[in-house]
Write a structure and sequence with these properties.
This protein is α+β, with helices and mostly antiparallel strands. Helices cover 52% and strands 22% of the residues. The strands form three sheets. Strands 4, 5, 6, 7, 8, 11, 12 and 13 form an eight-stranded antiparallel beta sheet that branches. It has a three-stranded antiparallel beta sheet with strand order 1-2-3.
Length: 368
């Protein structure tokens, strides 16, 4: 800081150092001036040191701020990449979990497919067993027929003996010639020989293959008089009935005519149906339907599909359009719809179209 005079006084800054110059001796004046100069230079050095110190502090502070900002930036970048790596790891784990789920679903589908194949093999075995039983029954019937033929032959012999007795009586009564009697006996022998030939031919016809026996059985079925082929009579087993869905209150065995309830589709079923599997192709000429016995539920209209395999079903048509049959209007009345032309198929399905309260029905089919 600079010393200066004012009104004969020496000042350093705003502080007064001494009084007027003329009050002091010269030496004292010089010494005072030197002291003031020394004090001023000391103060200047201190001010310079303070300024330098302040400059260094500003530099340190600036460096600290820059370092802090750079640290924050580096920390932000690291945090971003770490979060990105975590997201990728989570996505990878999700993909791996999804892959494991897909593999497990494929395994479950494979198990279901294997079970279905096993069930189909069991069904084929059951059907084959049924065919063998049917063949055995036909063979037994054939043996019975052979027994009947033998009985017929014995009856013919008895009749022949009776005729011979009658001839003897006539001979005695009419006194006919021996020649005429011989001729009559020869005619009887010829008739007997003809009958024996016929019996042998029938026996030969019964010695046919098992496949021909099944064909003969189907031909006989076609020649039988008009009848119900079995849902109500028990000829068709309950295992031959199936449906797209079944309500828990209405099991399939209630689907036959005059049962205590009916077959009912599930509550929210879409396009439900009930099916009969006759095991072999049958000629169906009429469909009979009935409502539910214990509640006011019935099918007012329905359609029919049929086929020899479930994968090749076709709808019954009339004049080139799928026919809609008129169904029931109450719970108990049986409504019969004739099929003209008739259908010849193993599988027959009934598809409810419109209904009262619920799709519930009892069914039967007729062939002639």
């Amino acid at each position: 800081m600079d010393a200066h005079y004012k009104n004969d006084h020496i000042y350093v800054g705003d502080d007064e150092i001494t009084s007027r110059r003329h009050d002091l001796p010269p030496q004292r004046k010089r010494s005072n001036f030197k002291e003031v100069s020394n004090t001023t230079s000391t103060q200047n050095s201190e001010s310079t040191a303070i300024i330098k110190m302040n400059g260094k502090l500003r530099i340190v502070f600036s460096v600290t701020v820059v370092f802090f900002i750079v640290s924050l930036a580096v920390f932000g970048v690291l945090a971003y990449w770490i979060s990105k790596l975590n997201i990728q790891n989570i996505e990878h784990k999700d993909q791996q979990s999804t892959g494991l789920k897909v593999i497990e679903e494929l395994k479950n589908e494979t198990r279901v497919f294997d079970r279905n194949l096993f069930n189909m093999m069991n069904e084929q075995k059951d059907q084959q067993s049924k065919n063998f039983k049917l063949i055995k029954e036909l063979k037994n019937e054939t043996r019975v027929s052979d027994g009947n033929l033998i009985n017929m032959m014995n009856e013919q012999k008895d009749q022949q003996s009776t005729k011979l007795k009658l001839i003897k009586e006539l001979k005695n009564e009419t006194k006919v010639s021996d020649g005429n009697l011989v001729n009559m006996m020869n005619e009887q022998k010829d008739q007997q020989s003809t009958k024996l030939k016929l019996i042998n031919e029938l026996k030969n016809e019964t010695r046919v293959s098992d496949g021909n026996l099944i064909n003969m059985m189907n031909d006989l079925i076609k020649k039988l008089p008009c009848r119900y082929p079995g849902i109500s009579t028990g000829l068709v087993k309950l295992s031959q009935l199936s449906a797209s869905s079944v309500h828990e209150d209405c099991p399939l065995h209630q689907a036959i005519l005059n049962s205590g309830r009916a077959w009912c589709a599930a509550k929210y079923a879409i396009n439900p149906w009930i099916q009969v599997d006759y095991l072999v192709a049958r000629t169906i000429t009429a469909i009979l339907t009935q409502g539910r016995a214990d509640l006011a539920q019935w099918v007012k209209s329905f359609q029919i599909s049929y086929g020899n395999t479930t994968s090749e079903m076709q709808y019954y048509q009339e004049l080139g359009k799928v026919k809609v049959f008129v169904g029931n209007s109450d719970e108990s009345t049986i409504v019969e719809n004739d099929l003209s032309p008739s259908i010849h198929a193993r599988f027959v399905r009934i598809h409810p179209v419109s209904y009262h309260n619920h799709r519930s029905m009892r069914i039967e089919m007729r062939d002639c």
